[in-house]
Amino acid sequence: MFSIDAPVEIQNSEYCNYRSPLSTRYASKEMQYNFSDQKKFSTWRKLWIYLAKAEKELGLDITDDQIAELEAAIHDIDFEAAAAHEKKVRHDVMAHVHTLAERCPKAAPIIHLGATSCYVGDNTDLIVLRHGLDLLLPRLGAIISQLSKFADEYKSLPMLGFTHLQPAQLTTVGKRASLWLSDLLMDERALSRARDDLRFRGVKGTTGTQASFLQLFKGDNDKVRALDQRVAELAGFNKRYIVTGQTYSRKVDLEVISALSGLGATVHKMCSDIRLLASRKELEEPFEASQIGSSAMPYKRNPMRSERCCALARHLITLHANAANTHAVQWLERTLDDSANRRITLAEGFLTADATLLTLLNICQGLVVYPKVIARHIAQELPFMATENIIMAMVQAGGDRQVCHEKIRVLSHEAGAQVKQHGKDNDLIERVKKDSYFAPIISQLDKILDASTFIGRAPEQVTEFIEEEVNPIIAKYKHALAEVGKPVSLLI
Q1: Coil/strand/helix, residue 39
Q2: Of 13, 182, 279, 294, which is the active-site residue?
Q3: What CATH topology corresponds to 387-448?
Q4: Tell me, how does this one assemble (predicted)?
Q5: In percent, how much of the chain has pLDDT > 90?
Q6: Sign of the C-alpha dihedral, residues 379, 176, 27, 317?
């Protein structure tokens, strides 16, 4: 019943264990490392060094040799020994305290001095979250930069606008892209705010009162406060949470995940739009020369990158409720309801966001526009849109508005029947030309039907938007764009 049906000789293979597709297929090496065991436990060791250094500076009996021994062991982690210790003591932090003590016998007496598990656990999480955002934000900046170029290039190319998924008035390809850009700018602000709001938990003790450190420094409040501040500085934080329970508030996680979830909503909307436009053959994501769209239908050009973005984005969106519920069930100074959940949610949130942005950047670097298809679709709808302009031109030529309106109404219904009932092209303009009533304005019809006269201020809006709102954000990441803006080659 509980057997493994693979041959015994391969049961220990990595392929006989579950492997997250976020690691094997989608996320970057950098983001995977950020949530790796090596990063986590080496950061624990750095935090023990920061604590020892600060305690030494404030007068505790800690030697330079002890600190040097710890520094030499930052990345030299015996994971098998740690696993054996954890199996015995059922406590991950104490397992790594014992493992480090075995590696650093001189420093063993001062490792974790005065601290509780959340000193290394929570502070490491905050370091990892901040670095995760530092990885995501430049990627988002590269997408904004790429999409801005696209919007500017196509800001004057008319295309059908849609409301209720029905043809409405015209917009432009670039104007539609600017709507995606606008949402991405909101995400950049949300992620930047979440990043800048992160503080260090510091040294707070078991329930956040710093009682153990006050005892360690014989009741000296100033030294405890100085210790808290100094450790934060050594960890690279200029702000710390002054009040905490045993943990920093899980509301912090919620704010970070909320920003990631909002990014997911943006990407899903944008890539859904791309998929809809691809179905109309107006816009297409990159398609490799050897790419296969369907095993059964060789002609297919499926928008699989956009579909992947939507799939990942949906997962990202759902994590918001998870983080909210985790914060909600933290009773009093803390419960352990958060632990197992956060091990999954925080890593998956960042790995999913990373994979989504990598895929979206690949899409934005190779978007293809088909102007002739767009023009054909406009031609099918523009005659109906132009009816009011035709009526106004006839009135200016001396016609009666009501008479003209009725004639246009009848001709429009006849043309509509040709389209819907007979599957033919829209022939409204041909019918207008054949009706002698409209003879006074026949020479004006080409001008009346010029699609560029139906796009309003769309090109000017795009230019204004890019100059005033987009370019300052691109400038913010200009030093990183040379690297993160390189052509993205997806693994799969």
Answers
A1: helix
A2: 294
A3: Ribonucleotide Reductase Protein R1; domain 1 (1.10.40)
A4: Homotetramer. Residues from neighboring subunits contribute catalytic and substrate-binding residues to each active site.
A5: 75
A6: negative
**Distance between CA 384 and CA 368 in Å, rounded?**
28
At 210-256, the pLDDT tens digits run 999 999 999 999 999 999 999 999 999 999 999 999 999 999 999 99
Q: How far apart are alpha carbons 292 and 145 in whole angstroms?
A: 30
**Residue 137 is encoded by which pair of tokens?**
């934000």
Tell me if 465 sits within 8 A of 178, measured CB to CB: yes
294 belongs to the catalytic site: yes
Tell me the whole-structure pTM to 2 decimals: 0.91
Q: What are the φ and ψ backbone dihedral angles of 162, each rounded to 5 degrees?
A: -130, 135
The verdict on whether 268 is a catalytic residue reads: no
DSSP string, 394-406: HHHTT--HHHHHH
CA–CA gap between residue 280 and residue 251 (Å, rounded) = 44
Q: What is the DSSP string of 248-278?
A: --THHHHHHHHHHHHHHHHHHHHHHHHHHHH
Task: Extract the runs of DSSP E, i.e. beta strands, from 46-128.
Answer: none
Kindly report the average pLDDT of the chain as a whole number: 92
Instruction: Give the domain ranges of the chain.
Output: 36-110, 117-286+300-369+470-484, 387-448
Which amino acid is present at 81? A
Q: What are phi and psi of 169, to 5 degrees?
A: -75, 170
Rounded to whole angstroms, the Cα distance separating 67 from 99 reads 16
- Using the Cα atoms of residue 282, residue 287, residue 290 and residue 294 in order, give the sign of their dihedral: negative
Looking at residue 156, what DSSP letter applies? T
Tell me the per-residue pLDDT of 418-447, one tens digit each, with 9 for 90 and over. 888 998 888 888 888 888 888 888 888 888
Whether 450 contacts 328, CB under 8 Å: no
Evaluate if residue 259 carries a pLDDT over 80. yes
CB atoms within 10 A of CB 283: 24
The arithmetic mean of pLDDT across residues 42-60, rounded, is 96
